[in-house]
Fold these 2 entries.
Entry 1:
Amino acid sequence: MRTATEKLQQLKPNSVWVFTKQETDFDESYKSALLFSEIPDKENTNIEDYFTKNHTRYDIQTDRHRILVIPQFFGMITKTPFYERGGTYNDENPTAIFDIIKAVSLQSKEYNTLKTEQVLKLKIHAIIDTANNNQGYNILPVLFIYKVLRGLKEKYGITKITIDQLYTYVMTCESYSEVDEAIEFIRLDSPISEFVADFKSRSRVLTCVKKNTNLFSIDSQYISINPAFDDYFYNNFILKYDFEELHEQLLRDVDYSYFLYNHQKFNINLIDEPETAGGAVSSTVIPVSSFIDEEDETAYIEKVDSIKETNINEKAGEGAHTVEPVAVSKFDVGRRFRTNPLLGKIAIKKAYYSCEKDYQHETFISKKTQQKYMEAHHLIPVCFQKEVWDKYHINIDCVENLVSLCPTCHKAIHYGTKEVQRKMITELFTRCAPKYKAIGLNITLEEIFKFYKI
């Protein structure tokens, strides 16, 4: 472990967790998302002008359309790509979680539960860090702050820390491996960073947490865990969900976007005081990611079909091939991998809801999306993700490796005779070859045949 002096020497004025300098009130951002969702002919509308003329409809406190960056921050409007500054918003869409929030009464317990979920999902490096100050940081800030404060209380009986300690030793951490280190530095009452004033000026994380949850008691000098929520949060969230697995899965922008934009059903309310002090301790650890084990084909197909075109921006899939894949099981890292349904949906949308084996193939209308029903298929099977990554450094859970197939063709490529499989794979490889070349994947048809054992 580093010494506190070594930690301080590595800090810079921009080392603190950064989101945005704008207002981070969830309720205000929800109203902005609501107005955005009602813009007619959004692709061809001057959104800045529309927002200026219509913001009073929902009593939004500013007439500047740039407030829309905050509902993007909370996952109610897409932002593609995450880290680029600015944007016209014409290509963006309300998300699936926004549709769910919109269906409940404002300030009801249901609303506050959904609001809590979105605050808990916030990640460093997050979508508003356009200056890349926190690039490589892989932390959910609410969870990290809680873990440090809970650790100090359990190990040393320390129930509160100064705001300066929080900024110096907590809000400069990059990964969960630093939790114990932060606890020790604070326990030893280590010196405060010379940049703490810069940290407070640059970051709005603490303001965001204070405004949108009641998990912590925060004043001008100190922060502590709110005792009314401590055991409730610990028993029903910390012990319940597998965050170690989750953090490894959110490295790609497209994976974080799918997690942020879709309902994860945390069922935690950190705004209304819980009716019981602690709640029941969960005996089962639940994976919180909605990504699908590649062997569970049916679940993947169903999730892809459930995604509405109006809730996505197909640009979200760009660059997905560049990030090393994360294995589902630490005991079987050569075979099992998660797949992101959003990428499958983008591939189907790009194919105009047609079968890429033969565009004339007929299918039915999906009751979920009211579009022609298609299924997404990884031409290079993701069970060979490790082999492909080791040889080509390409993550094959990407749009370039996904094809849109009608149900009959999808079954045929899995269960047809070797002759049927070879013919289909050859035709689909011809379609995918230019996309493979564009991302630097120089795989051969014969290699793919070997993967299918044909």
Note: The chain has 20 helices and seven strands.
Entry 2:
Amino acid sequence: MIEKNLQIIRKKLPPEVSLVAVSKFHPVERLMEAYAAGQRIFAESRPQELAAKVPQMPSDVQWHFIGHLQTNKLKMVLPYVSLVQSVDSFHLLDAIAKWARANGRVLDVLLELHLGAEQTKQGFTEEEILSICQSHCHSEQSEESIRIRGLMGMASNTEDMAQVEREFARIEALYNKIKASGMEGFDILSIGMSGDWPIAVRHGATMVRIGTDIFGPREY
């Protein structure tokens, strides 16, 4: 079933859009089914679950972190991931840069825009993201430890697809504005999940994060 689900998604997904399999709450056996079907990028949102799964999966898997990351959990995540998609505060951005410098790493990150209507969602404002990108372009020290590769956003949890469309249009406009400024290496727009990824693709997504449509309902 997982292989069939992946085939269906890949047929609909433009070739230039990366598919990230959101594997949180699913056992390694199901991840291996996706791996056998050719999937190589997986995303987790809990540090403990990520750290437990990494050694059980093949070494050529690319791991992304997509959840709220507390700074006291960095060492459970940063050694293993190729991309932190969910940088949602100045404090976290600084902590990642500090960890990367201390460990001789250069880490790729996405800045999370507070996109949905829910106040519980994390993320920056447009103004904060623009300020960070401007500062990053003029800071050699930052460039040594982190690369801001793009933006991530999560639409409101709603059945109103017109609202989702408006929210994706908003992050698309911000992404295009920063990209047009000539920021080096800024090339990822991660929006869209199982319920709304076709809308995200229409709004310039270069990466979609799909869980349920691949693995089925979560196993808590």
Note: The longest helix spans residues 161-180.
